[in-house]
Design goal:
Number of helices: 0
Helix content: under 10%
Largest sheet: 7 strands, mixed
Structural class: mainly beta
Strand content: over 45%
Number of strands: 11
Mean pLDDT: 97
């Protein structure tokens, strides 16, 4: 059974940091591109960041560039999202996803076929 489980969300103040983790099981993790998406109340699910199979290539949404860093540990079947200098507009449910898109499609949610259940991140002002 393929499963992605996110953790690390919480309530923080603006300017704080959080690190999200996503543990994968039931798949050959190192063969998948891993992505992070987020969905705020009443809004569509938006791309945040993605990382290639061995971490050589990464892509970020403009809104998080310079503040967020995606990384992965294939030995632990885990992908991370380090979030620094958080802003209230970063408040959302954060989802990790696994897929096999080409680089130009990293930001497309339809490129991913396995999703986690999400973890809530709330940033107060």
């Amino acid at each position: 059974q393929v499963q992605l489980v996110e953790s690390g969300g919480g309530l923080v103040q603006a300017g704080d940091s959080l690190r999200l983790s996503c543990a994968a099981s039931g798949l050959t993790f190192s063969r998948y591109v891993m992505g992070w998406f987020r969905q705020a109340p009443g809004k569509e699910r938006d791309f945040v960041a993605a990382i290639s199979w061995i971490g050589y290539n990464t892509k970020y949404a403009d809104s998080v560039k310079g503040r967020f860093t995606i990384s992965r540990d294939n030995a632990k079947n885990t992908v991370y999202l380090q979030m620094n200098r958080l802003k209230p507009e970063d408040t959302a449910v954060y989802f990790c996803a696994a897929g096999t898109p080409k680089y130009s499609d990293y930001a497309l949610s339809r490129s991913y076929d396995t999703w986690g259940q999400g973890t809530q991140v709330t940033v107060s002002s």
